[in-house]
Amino acid sequence: MTCYRITASLCCALLLLWSAAAWGQAGTQLGPAPGIVELLPIELDRRDANRAEFDRLKLLGAFQLRSKDARFGGLSGIAIGADGKLYAVSDRGFWLSARMHMDARGRLLNLSDWQIARLLTPEKAAVSGQLTDAEALARSADGSFIVAFEQAHRIWRYRAPPESFHSAAAPVPMPSEILKAPRNGGLEAVSVLPDGRIFAIAEDLENPDGSLQAWLIDNGHSRQLSYVPSDGFRPSDATALKNGDVLVLERRYNLLHYFSARLKLVKAQNLRPGAKLAGEELPRLDSPLTVDNFEGVAALETNEGAVIFLVSDDNYFRFQRTLLLQFLLPNSRSTAD
Hints:
The chain is mostly beta strands. It has one domain: 5 Propeller (Tachylectin-2, Chain A), CATH 2.115.10.
């Protein structure tokens, strides 16, 4: 899970107290979860319910996901599977998936056929303890999934659907430097490029110049580069587009502004060893917009452009929400310099 550094102990303590009773009953339940999640439309900009333009992105839909099932929540990474379903991982070690229903324009109408199951270890046992904190999910070209974890820093690969939920994890070699990251500051932003390389950014592992350590991982070999987040922000996820560009989701938390998020576009030609990446800001989501702890980003490319999904991690707190936003990055601009 992500407990913010300024209030980490309080966050984790409240979380344990709130969920202990319910979790003891629900933590081992696996399998189908029909109808457990409600998809509730919300207004992203409550001052202007008809607002559609958010910088370079067009809003397609804004929703809250709500469920009484104690397993649901903590969504820290999302991806679109080769089967067209929406997949997610939670920071308590669960897989989630749902079938997406969209209109002719690509707008999300509903999510159905929800499935929830425990992530499995290389020994095909359910993850437990410090092995549960899944923070990033990315789909590879062959349909397999990459999952990155904090607490016990590692990257595991799972088979493509429909075997993902039942497959044993296959460890992926990663740079040894990530083991120096704080327990809650590891690999939260991970994507798979079209050529198969993994692009990963450490959330809280700084270089001497203040940039964050990042890597291009290819068949067990890693090349280092760095990433410069927006002031006060930290990367929380990433997803690659078909042209090799990468969208990096950043988030910020402070007591004054609560949550903020930014989506950055990193051009494919800049993803090279030794590079210092900054990215171009697309939208900025801040108060008074409806925001929460955005930790997951995924993209589905269409004839009109890249349909982008953002999801927030509620940390299993009653006072936070699981939000799902859907934007369009039009084709005419997705490759602009």
